Every structure is written in structure tokens, then in C-alpha cells.
Amino acid sequence: MKKLFALLGVVVVLIAAGFGIHQVSSQSQKKESKTIIVGSQGSDFQIWQHIASSPEAKKAGLKIQVKEITDGVQLNKATADGSVDVNAFQSYSYFKAFNQENKKNQLVNLGTTYLEPLGIYSEKVQSLEELPDQATVAIANNPANTARGLLLLQEAGLIKLSDDFGPLSGVEEVAENPKHLVFKQIDDTTGPRVLKSVDAVLISNTVALDGGLNVLDDSLFHEKVDQSTKNNINILATAKSNEKNGNFKKLVKLYHNKTIQDYIEKEYNGTKIEVVKSLSYLEK
């Protein structure tokens, strides 16, 4: 009889243990199957609304709710504190700048999405060669985009930057300026509105699209996908605590689904150039 009770006790323990494992597993699956809140802005917000309602998202087993937050810093902070699960709006350089300034609220990169080329635009000249001496060039006034703009001007052959130039450097690191360009720093979103008042202006593609401009057709010069622009590739980001979340990682694969990419290509006239790169490519 004692042996029978002991055997029953072992069976009960095994059943309970099995139930506990099943419960933990179910809780884990439930946690990963919950609705994913994707924070975004501008044209990226529109893209993710399309993705959220797409058959491709359903096939991937992903429930997505898209939330619009127009301030980039606030969107990153909302992601860091968990109010937003994943965000889709920022370049790798913007991401690094945020992490550098917010040591206690670190984000991680889930994967690459696209390069949205920064372009140099003008209504006063037809080519960069026509820019006069002391031409006024408007560039973004936030550190990450200021540096990005200066790198593009160097790539265009208009200036040369110092050896100390970094991802958050500003106009003080311009080492050579043969045309004596005058830099006017402006809010990123006002680019199209200042076209008439300056000789040239650097405009991000999101803002250019909102202003009726196509970077591939209307700019005098624009970024290409190569090693020099890797910091400008856009990414999906999440809080460091979510680094291993399987469903969050699936969002990267979903973005690169061919049907989704066909929609983006058509909707934005090819100006959001798909980039499929490993995390190590950006971190080199």
C-alpha cells in the first residue's frame, strides 16, 4: 500500500510538473502572440498601417496596431519604456545618437528596412557646379542629420571634412570650403518651404515626399546605397529587454515580403530603397 501511495505521489508530481511546464509555455506563447504596438510617423506610419491590415501579416500570425508619435525622441522614449513595442521611423545614426544620450533607456536594432536618400535641392541653380561663391545652403539643425547632410555635401565634392568628423559632428568640422558656402541650420521639416529663400537645401526624403518632391528626379544630388551611407539606413528598434522576442523579429521579415515591397515601390515611386543587411554590417 505504501508503495502504491508513493507511486501515486510520483505520478501527481509529474502531472503537476507537466502542467506547470505547459502553463509556462502557454504563458510564453500568449506573451509573444499579443498585439504588437508599432510606433511610427509620416510615410512610415502609412506603410505600417498597410502592413498591419495586410494578408501577409495575418499569414505570419502577427497582430499589429500602429500608433503615430510625431516627435522622434518621444517615440524612442515610449519604445524604451514599453508604451510602444517596436518603432519604425529612424536611421541607424539617429538610433545611435539616442542611445548615446540615454544610457539608462537603451534600444536595440532588430533589423534593416530601407535607405531613404537625403537629397540636395535648389530652385536657383540647375547643377551643383552653378552654385555661386558664398551660396547659402540650408541643412538640418539636429546633430545626427547635420552630420548626415555634411557628409552628403562632401560626397558631392562641395566641402571636405576634418579627420575628427564623427556621427554627431557639426559645421565646425568643415576643414575645406572652397566655395565659402554659408550654412543655415533649419528644422528638418521646413526644407521645401525654404527652397525659394536659399541657394540650396538638404531635404530628407520623407519631408521631400510631403512637399511634392521626388529625390530621384528632383534633387541635384542624392545618397546612394553604399558603405558611406550605412549609418543612414533605417531600422526597426525595440527596448533592450525585448531583444530576443521572436515575433518582434518577424516584423523585419514581414517588411521585406515581396508583396509588401511591391506596394512600397509603387506607392513611393521607388524612393524608399529596400536594404536587407545583417546587424553586423551596420556595426562594423
TrEMBL record:
It holds the Pfam family Lipoprotein_9. It is found in: Membrane. SUPFAM superfamilies: Periplasmic binding protein-like II. It is a lipid-anchor. Its main location: membrane. It comes from the Bacteria. One of its GO terms (cellular component) is membrane. Keywords: Lipoprotein, Membrane, Palmitate, Signal. Belongs to the nlpA lipoprotein family. This is Lipoprotein. The lineage of its organism: Bacteria, Bacillati, Bacillota, Bacilli, Lactobacillales.
